[in-house]
Every structure is written in C-alpha cells, then in structure tokens.
C-alpha cells in the first residue's frame, strides 16, 4: 500500500462555460470577483475563460492569473488546500 493520501482535485469551469449561457455577460471585474470566491472555496484549477475569443477575454484571463492565482487567503490552515490555484484558459 502507498502512504500517499487520496486527493480530490476541483476543476471549475464557471467563468468559461458560464458566459455561454443565454443572457450572461460578465465584465473583467466581475470575473475577478468570482475567481477570488472560487479560490476561497478551495478550487484547485480554474478555467478562467477562452483568451483567443477576444481581447477582453485575454485581458480577463491574464488578470485572474496574476491577481487571483497566487492568493492564499482561505487556502491554508484547514488541511484541505495548501497551494495556489492553477489558472488555465
């Protein structure tokens, strides 16, 4: 048997798939706010958007990667999550 513990990886697509719902449009600040909350919830990997779709999407994914990815608030001390959130697009 291995000494390694089982790990659950949470891969969230809210910011990419959410905008594909009819009537949903998020600006960059709203996306950053949502990404911060997902980080606090312990999401491991965040699919932040589709950067080739538009300059606005590129900017949003870039800002989320810079501003939210390295945040550790709420991600340590409880034994669940102790690493930065991975941002992909």
Write the layout of secondary structure elements.
Elements: E1 11-12, H1 14-17, H2 28-40, E2 45-47, H3 55-67, E3 86-88
Helix pairs in contact: 2-3
Q: What features would you describe in this structure?
A:
The chain has helices spanning 14-17, 28-40, 55-67, and strands spanning 11-12, 45-47, 86-88. With 89 residues, it is an alpha/beta fold. The chain has a 3-stranded parallel sheet with strand order 1-2-3. The model has no long low-confidence stretch (mean pLDDT 83).
Helix amount, in percent? 25-40%
Question: How many runs of DSSP E, i.e. beta strands?
Answer: 3
- The count of helical stretches stands at 3
> Major β-sheet, in short?
3 strands, parallel
Cα distance spanning the termini? 36 Å
Low-confidence stretches: none
Mean pLDDT: 83
Structural descriptors:
single chain, 89 residues, alpha/beta, three-stranded parallel β-sheet, 3 helices, globular, branched-chain amino acid biosynthesis, EC 2.3.3.13, 2-isopropylmalate synthase activity
């Amino acid at each position: 048997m291995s000494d390694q513990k089982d790990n659950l990886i949470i891969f969230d697509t809210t910011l990419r798939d959410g905008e594909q719902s009819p009537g949903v449009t998020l600006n960059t600040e709203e996306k950053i706010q949502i990404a911060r909350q997902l980080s606090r919830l312990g999401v491991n990997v965040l699919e932040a958007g589709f950067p080739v779709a538009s300059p606005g999407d590129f900017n949003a994914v870039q800002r989320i990667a810079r501003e939210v990815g390295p945040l550790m608030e709420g991600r340590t001390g409880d034994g669940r999550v102790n690493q930065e959130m991975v941002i992909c697009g």
